[in-house]
């Protein structure tokens, strides 16, 4: 058997298992990858909200990244919740010359509505977007980053996710410097079980890029994986429930 693609996830932990590092590991594993983690923060949260957050020190986050890259190495990196501006700067510095696909999910607010990034942290996102192969903002995140015009002017390649928009269709749009836009649309799945969809999508894209797929194909397959996981949601919790990663089978 060939070795699985190595994916390093730099993100926060979700104690309830639906999002964050836990969703990332599930996604990478189900897509045939080998998951490693550099945890930026730990949270007390469930399907109803985030009750507490404790960020780790920037030095410890850096030590986790260094340990993984110095020994096992990585074929791709996914960045999620960062926890502080200092952590964001350390991550950008460590990855700037990595030379591997990097998918940056600019997490600012949890599905439940809890804030997961302050203004100082968001200010560092420009550096991370420069480092990343792809940035995956949802509707409010894109607005907070200055909108399409600002990201285009900065030369950022980004996937504008439409799950938070209104309407019967969910439309995602990739914007790349010097290339035509490409759009994917599918009927909206009416469900409250969407906790961790952004984490799952970005981790799936990173894993598929690590497997050598072109960016467009990685996005298309990742979207299919997320939709299948939503449809297989186990129905846990009283709020926005987790996806059913364990039920998705792929080639």
UniProtKB/TrEMBL annotation:
EC number(s) given by UniProt: 2.7.1.49
* Any one GO MF annotation of this record: ATP binding
The metabolic or biological pathway listed in the UniProt record of this protein is: Cofactor biosynthesis; thiamine diphosphate biosynthesis
Keywords of the record: ATP-binding, Kinase, Nucleotide-binding, Transferase
Top-level taxonomic group: Bacteria
Gene3D superfamilies tied to this protein: 3.40.1190.20
Q: Which residues form the Pyridoxamine kinase/Phosphomethylpyrimidine kinase domain?
A: 14-243
Q: What InterPro entries does UniProt report for this protein, alphabetically? A: HMP/HMP-P_kinase_dom, PM/HMP-P_kinase-1, Ribokinase-like
Q: Which Pfam families match?
A: Phos_pyr_kin
Query: Per the UniProt entry, what are the Gene Ontology biological process annotations, in alphabetical order?
Result: thiamine biosynthetic process; thiamine diphosphate biosynthetic process
**GO cellular component entries:** cytosol
Q: What is this protein called?
A: hydroxymethylpyrimidine kinase
């Amino acid at each position: 058997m060939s070795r699985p693609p190595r994916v390093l996830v730099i993100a926060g932990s979700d104690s309830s298992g639906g999002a964050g590092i836990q969703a990332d590991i599930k996604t990478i594993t189900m897509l045939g990858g080998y998951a490693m983690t550099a945890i930026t923060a730990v949270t007390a949260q469930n399907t109803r909200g985030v009750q507490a957050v404790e960020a780790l020190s920037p030095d410890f986050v850096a030590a986790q990244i260094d340990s993984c890259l110095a020994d096992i190495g990585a074929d791709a990196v996914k960045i999620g919740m960062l926890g502080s501006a200092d952590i964001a700067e350390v991550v950008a510095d460590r990855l700037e010359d990595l030379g591997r696909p990097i998918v940056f999910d600019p997490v600012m607010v949890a599905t439940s509505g809890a804030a997961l990034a302050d203004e100082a942290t968001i200010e560092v996102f420009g550096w991370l977007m420069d480092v990343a192969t792809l940035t995956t903002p949802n509707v409010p995140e894109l607005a907070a980053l200055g909108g399409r015009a600002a990201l285009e002017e900065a030369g950022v390649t980004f996937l504008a996710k439409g799950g938070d928009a209104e309407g019967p269709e969910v439309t995602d749009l990739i914007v790349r410097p010097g290339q035509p836009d490409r759009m994917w649309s599918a009927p909206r799945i009416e469900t409250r079980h969407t906790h961790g969809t952004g984490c799952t999508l970005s981790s799936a894209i990173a894993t598929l890029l690590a497997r050598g797929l072109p960016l467009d194909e990685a996005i298309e397959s990742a979207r299919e994986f997320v939709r299948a996981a939503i449809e297989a949601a186990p129905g846990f919790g009283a709020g926005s429930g987790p996806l059913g990663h364990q039920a998705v089978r792929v080639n």
